[in-house]
Amino acid sequence: MKINARGPEFVELDYTPMIDMTFQLIAFFMILINFSDAEADERVQLPSSTLAKPPDSSAETPIYIQMMRDGRLIMNTQVLADPEAIRPFLKAEKYLLQTKNQSEKNATIIIRAHKDAKTGMVQKIIKVCQEVGFEKFTLRAKSEVGY
Questions:
Q1: pLDDT given at position 126
Q2: Which residues contact 135 (CB under 8 A, 6 or more apart)?
Q3: Which backbone phi and psi does 131 adopt, to 5 degrees?
Q4: CA-closest candidate to residue 75, choices 46, 112, 105, 101
C-alpha cells in the first residue's frame, strides 16, 4: 500500500465555526456584565467619602431614588419636584412587590444624592418612604481612597 505524503498544495480552512463561537462568547459575557451603574444618572455627582465602601452583596430588590443639586428627584426616569411626588411611585413599587409575594420591608431604597444637595431633603425622602412602608435604605457615596 502506497501512501502519498504530498497533500494538496493549498489547504483552505473554514473559519465560520470559530467566528460563530466568538460571537456567542461575546453575547454570553454581555449578559453577565454587572449593570449596577445602570441606574446612575450623570446629573447626580456623588459626594466623596473615605468611609464609603462597596456593599458586601447587591441589594435583593433595589429601588433607586436620585436627587439632583437643585432638589429635584429622579425616579423611574421621571423628574419630580419634591419628596412628596415620589409617593405614587413608591406605592406602585409596593404593589408590584406584593404581586410577586414579596414584602416592601425586604426592598432596599438606594438614595443617590448630589454632593451639593441639602441633607434635609434626603431626610424627607426617607420619611416618605417609611410612611409608605419601606424600611431598608442605602446612601451612595463615591469611594475616596485615603493614603
A1: 92
A2: 104, 105
A3: -65, -30
A4: 112
- Pick from 64, 66, 113, 72: which is nearest to 90 by CA? 64
Of 65 and 9, which is predicted with more confidence?
65
Distance of alpha carbon 147 from alpha carbon 138, whole angstroms: 26
Q: Which domains does the chain have, with CATH numbers?
A: 48-143 (3.30.420.270)
Distances (CA, A) of 105 to 1, 65, 73: 81, 17, 22
Q: Could you tell me which of 13, 116, 7 has the C-alpha nearest to residue 71? A: 116
Amino acid identity at 47: P
C-alpha cell at 141: 457615596
Whether the Cβ atoms of residue 94 and residue 101 lie closer than 8 Å to each other: no
Contacts of 28 (CB under 8 A, 6+ apart): none
Q: Residue 85 is placed in which grid cell?
A: 411626588
Digit-coded pLDDT (tens) for 13-56: 888 999 999 999 998 888 877 555 556 666 666 666 665 566 66
